[in-house]
Amino acid sequence: MTAALTATQRSGRPSKLSKRDERQFVREVEKDRSITPEPLTEAFNKCLTISVSSRTVQRTLHNYGFYSRVANQKPLATEKNKKIRIGWCKRMKNWKEEWDMVVFGDESRYLIFKMMLI
Protein backbone atom coordinates (compact mmCIF):
# COMPACT_ATOMS: atom_id res chain seq x y z
CA MET A 1 0.00 0.00 0.00
CA THR A 2 1.40 3.40 -1.02
CA ALA A 3 0.55 6.53 0.90
CA ALA A 4 -0.69 9.46 -1.13
CA LEU A 5 1.31 12.66 -0.88
CA THR A 6 -0.61 15.82 -0.19
CA ALA A 7 0.55 19.40 -0.11
CA THR A 8 0.61 20.49 3.50
CA GLN A 9 0.62 24.01 4.78
CA ARG A 10 4.13 25.34 5.30
CA SER A 11 5.31 27.74 7.92
CA GLY A 12 6.60 31.14 6.88
CA ARG A 13 5.37 33.85 4.61
CA PRO A 14 4.58 32.79 1.05
CA SER A 15 6.68 34.36 -1.68
CA LYS A 16 5.37 37.48 -3.42
CA LEU A 17 6.94 36.35 -6.67
CA SER A 18 5.63 33.55 -8.82
CA LYS A 19 8.01 31.11 -10.49
CA ARG A 20 7.32 32.96 -13.75
CA ASP A 21 8.41 36.28 -12.18
CA GLU A 22 11.57 34.64 -10.85
CA ARG A 23 12.43 33.24 -14.29
CA GLN A 24 11.90 36.70 -15.79
CA PHE A 25 14.46 38.14 -13.34
CA VAL A 26 16.92 35.42 -14.35
CA ARG A 27 16.39 36.12 -18.07
CA GLU A 28 17.04 39.83 -17.56
CA VAL A 29 20.25 39.14 -15.63
CA GLU A 30 21.45 36.67 -18.26
CA LYS A 31 20.98 39.39 -20.91
CA ASP A 32 23.04 41.92 -18.95
CA ARG A 33 25.30 40.43 -16.26
CA SER A 34 26.35 43.89 -15.02
CA ILE A 35 22.85 44.96 -13.96
CA THR A 36 22.32 45.52 -10.23
CA PRO A 37 19.16 44.61 -8.28
CA GLU A 38 18.06 48.25 -7.88
CA PRO A 39 17.37 49.09 -11.56
CA LEU A 40 15.98 45.61 -12.09
CA THR A 41 13.56 46.17 -9.19
CA GLU A 42 12.50 49.58 -10.53
CA ALA A 43 11.80 48.15 -13.98
CA PHE A 44 9.77 45.23 -12.63
CA ASN A 45 7.80 47.31 -10.13
CA LYS A 46 6.57 49.42 -13.06
CA CYS A 47 5.18 46.41 -14.92
CA LEU A 48 4.18 44.10 -12.03
CA THR A 49 0.94 44.45 -10.11
CA ILE A 50 2.85 43.87 -6.87
CA SER A 51 5.74 45.83 -5.43
CA VAL A 52 8.93 44.02 -4.43
CA SER A 53 12.09 45.28 -2.77
CA SER A 54 15.58 45.10 -4.22
CA ARG A 55 16.46 42.71 -1.39
CA THR A 56 13.74 40.32 -2.63
CA VAL A 57 15.21 40.49 -6.13
CA GLN A 58 18.71 39.90 -4.75
CA ARG A 59 17.54 36.91 -2.68
CA THR A 60 15.75 35.45 -5.70
CA LEU A 61 18.85 35.78 -7.86
CA HIS A 62 20.96 34.15 -5.13
CA ASN A 63 18.56 31.20 -5.16
CA TYR A 64 19.26 30.83 -8.90
CA GLY A 65 23.03 30.99 -8.41
CA PHE A 66 23.71 34.64 -9.29
CA TYR A 67 26.01 36.53 -6.92
CA SER A 68 27.44 40.02 -7.13
CA ARG A 69 31.14 40.54 -7.63
CA VAL A 70 33.26 43.67 -7.77
CA ALA A 71 35.24 43.92 -11.00
CA ASN A 72 39.01 44.05 -10.68
CA GLN A 73 40.58 47.41 -11.41
CA LYS A 74 42.69 47.40 -14.54
CA PRO A 75 46.14 49.02 -14.54
CA LEU A 76 46.17 52.46 -16.07
CA ALA A 77 48.28 51.99 -19.21
CA THR A 78 47.78 54.61 -21.88
CA GLU A 79 48.82 54.16 -25.50
CA LYS A 80 51.81 56.42 -24.85
CA ASN A 81 52.91 54.26 -21.88
CA LYS A 82 52.48 51.09 -23.93
CA LYS A 83 54.71 52.43 -26.71
CA ILE A 84 57.37 53.51 -24.20
CA ARG A 85 57.36 50.07 -22.54
CA ILE A 86 57.57 48.22 -25.85
CA GLY A 87 60.44 50.45 -26.95
CA TRP A 88 62.31 49.76 -23.68
CA CYS A 89 61.77 46.02 -24.08
CA LYS A 90 63.07 46.07 -27.65
CA ARG A 91 66.19 47.97 -26.56
CA MET A 92 66.88 45.55 -23.70
CA LYS A 93 66.13 42.40 -25.69
CA ASN A 94 69.73 41.89 -26.80
CA TRP A 95 71.39 42.71 -23.47
CA LYS A 96 73.62 39.98 -22.13
CA GLU A 97 76.62 41.23 -20.15
CA GLU A 98 74.93 44.58 -19.57
CA TRP A 99 72.54 42.99 -17.06
CA ASP A 100 75.54 42.28 -14.81
CA MET A 101 75.96 46.04 -14.44
CA VAL A 102 72.37 46.56 -13.24
CA VAL A 103 71.70 46.76 -9.51
CA PHE A 104 68.34 45.43 -8.40
CA GLY A 105 67.21 46.88 -5.09
CA ASP A 106 64.44 45.66 -2.86
CA GLU A 107 63.07 49.14 -2.19
CA SER A 108 60.36 50.24 -4.56
CA ARG A 109 57.63 52.82 -4.54
CA TYR A 110 54.26 51.81 -5.86
CA LEU A 111 51.17 53.92 -6.31
CA ILE A 112 48.16 51.70 -5.81
CA PHE A 113 44.68 53.21 -5.71
CA LYS A 114 46.11 56.67 -4.96
CA MET A 115 47.95 55.37 -1.87
CA MET A 116 51.74 55.46 -1.78
CA LEU A 117 53.26 52.14 -0.77
CA ILE A 118 56.97 51.98 -0.02
Automatic annotation (TrEMBL):
Record-annotated Transposase Tc1-like domain positions: 23-92
GO molecular function, one term: DNA binding
Protein name: 7945_t:CDS:1
Organism name: Paraglomus occultum
Annotated stretches, region: Disordered: 1-23
A biological process term (GO) from this entry: DNA integration
Pfam families, sorted: HTH_Tnp_Tc3_2
Comp. bias regions, Polar residues: 1-12
